[in-house]
Design brief:
single chain, Topoisomerase I, Chain A, domain 4, Gyrase A, domain 2, four-stranded antiparallel sheet, two-stranded antiparallel sheet, 4 helices
């Protein structure tokens, strides 16, 4: 395989890896009834004249499987943190004692579990679309390379390797989804 074809394949794989890493981040945000500091990854506060991620202004711990504690390094940020958690649509009710914020993670109802499974499936489908778009782009580039002098056999080889990559990454998405479903449905 020539250099341009190898580069095309490498670019497609990079895009597919990016889709997988994005999926992993999004699945981490979907709670499964257990306390996980990653649930708060999307939260930031206005402090010191800028928007700062929560994990850069406070310690986030899980003292037990159903509780998250947030201890800001600067106590003046307590109210801002509490406000952002309430506004974040996580469905959590912060308890502020003036030193630390506690978040009790409620048990999930069957209905809520099904909603989270549905959200997980949606994120997985988005990742699959990203992977298929990378394949489509690589296939298009293979056609262009053939017009620019790549032999038909090399184009077919490039397309076959692109399809192998696609199948591999789709399988990874399905694996992540089944693991997340199992985690959500485990009581």
């Amino acid at each position: 395989m020539n250099e341009e074809a190898a580069m095309c394949l490498e670019m497609a794989e990079d895009q597919m890896k990016h889709a997988i890493s994005h999926l992993e981040k999004e699945l981490h945000k979907i709670r499964a009834g257990k306390a996980n500091p990653a649930m708060l990854d999307g939260i930031g506060i206005e402090a010191y004249g800028a928007r700062i991620p929560l994990n850069q202004v406070a310690n986030i711990n899980t003292p037990d499987p159903r509780t998250l504690t947030i201890q800001p390094w600067d106590k003046s940020n307590l109210k801002a943190i509490e406000k952002e958690i309430i506004n974040s649509n996580l469905g959590l009710n912060p308890q502020n004692d003036g030193i630390i914020i506690r978040l009790n993670i409620p048990m999930l109802t069957e209905e809520r579990r099904n909603e989270f499974v549905k959200m997980s499936k949606s994120e997985a489908e988005d990742a699959k679309v990203g992977i298929r778009n990378a394949r489509k782009q690589a296939m298009h580039e293979a056609q262009q390379l053939e017009k620019d002098g790549l032999s038909e056999d090399e184009r077919k080889q490039l397309e076959a390797k692109t399809q192998e990559l696609t199948d591999k990454y789709i399988k990874i998405v399905d694996q992540h989804l089944s693991e997340k479903e199992k985690e959500i449905k485990t009581i």
